[in-house]
Amino acid sequence: MNTAVISNLHLLDFKNYPEANLVFSPKVNVFVGDNGVGKTNVLDAIHYLAVTKSYFNPVDSQNIRHDQPFMVIEGDFESDQGKDHIYCGVKRGQKKTFKKNKKDYERLADHIGEIPLVMISPADRDLILDGSEVRRKFMDGVISQSDKHYLDDLLSYNKALTQRNSLLKYFAKNGVFDPAQLEIYDEQLIERGHRIHQRRSAFMEQMKPIMLEAYATIAGEQEDVSITYSSKLNEMNMDEALKASLQKDRVLQYTSVGIHKDDLAFSLRSYPLKKTGSQGQQKTFTIALKLAQFDFLKEITGRKPILLLDDIFDKLDEKRVESIISMVNDHRFGQIFITDTHAERTGGIVKRIAEESRVFNVTSNGEIAPLEE
């Protein structure tokens, strides 16, 4: 199976790093150090190069090191197809520059899916605790990495949605109504919305059994968890939904139905996971969800994604940590990056995992040095 790996990384004024040059193992790379020293930032830089943006802060200029005018992230990725140099540059007040082999992308969307990647982080708890938008973004992010047409449909849908909402506001403000004008946007929402709903449904059908199996493996016992795709389009098509909600939309001055209202419901013993699950159960759920994302992308793209494990052992009992270690030890994974505050614990993990590994020590002054093995 074709696997893309990042062989080296160069950072310049990215977050807390004035400058860093790193050479990686094609298998396992571990970053150890105290909390707050910037271990996660290295993983986020790799995420930038694969997905064109930060995992944590979508505002590019806020990822530039304090008081500096610009930042650069670049690295070489190697696969069966050869080597690609990816460059990302952000200058305050200017548009982001993103290049592959020195050639600018016309659209950032064209890079999505080129380097499959899965990030597992404490921030994933937002998937359980936050509103539906976070869960939709999760679905969209995964599907977009495996289907460029889906991303195009999503961008077109959101554009038509914005225009329809503006028109509804205009009608209300001016005391007028022209259904023919509204139909132009309705047609776009119906066509794109139908395809998006079909793709999300198929995605959940594939993901659900993988996710439940991963949860059972990590938990090591039978805990009754479930995941359900919630959408108005499960009950009626987009055309019917828009017609049924037209009067309501005119009063609200925005579009109240459609795939932009979809959600994922997570449950434990038939109750919402967010209310009944312990911190350990919630963390196990999000890790299982992300490992299912890994398998989904691998199956769809035929490539092993890069796996980023950011501080995932905190809040988990030893038994669950052991289960995750044994899963990661499986040959189904390609290149792996791990951050941990416990150097001893990580040392044990590395010995258990792949033949090849590198361990880096990260210090509070932004220095990263490989530890002698």
TrEMBL record:
It is found in: Cytoplasm. It comes from the Bacteria. One of its GO terms (biological process) is double-strand break repair. ATP binds at residues 33-40. SMART domains: AAA. Its main location: cytoplasm. The keyword DNA repair applies. Gene3D superfamilies: P-loop containing nucleotide triphosphate hydrolases, RecF/RecN/SMC, N-terminal domain. Pfam families: SMC_N. The keyword DNA repair applies. Keywords: ATP-binding, Cytoplasm, DNA damage, DNA repair, DNA replication, DNA-binding, Nucleotide-binding, SOS response. One of its GO terms (cellular component) is cytoplasm. Residues 25-367 form the AAA+ ATPase domain. GO terms for molecular function: ATP binding; single-stranded DNA binding. Belongs to the RecF family. NCBIfam families: recf. The RecF protein is involved in DNA metabolism; it is required for DNA replication and normal SOS inducibility. RecF binds preferentially to single-stranded, linear DNA. It also seems to bind ATP. PANTHER family: DNA REPLICATION AND REPAIR PROTEIN RECF. This is DNA replication and repair protein RecF.
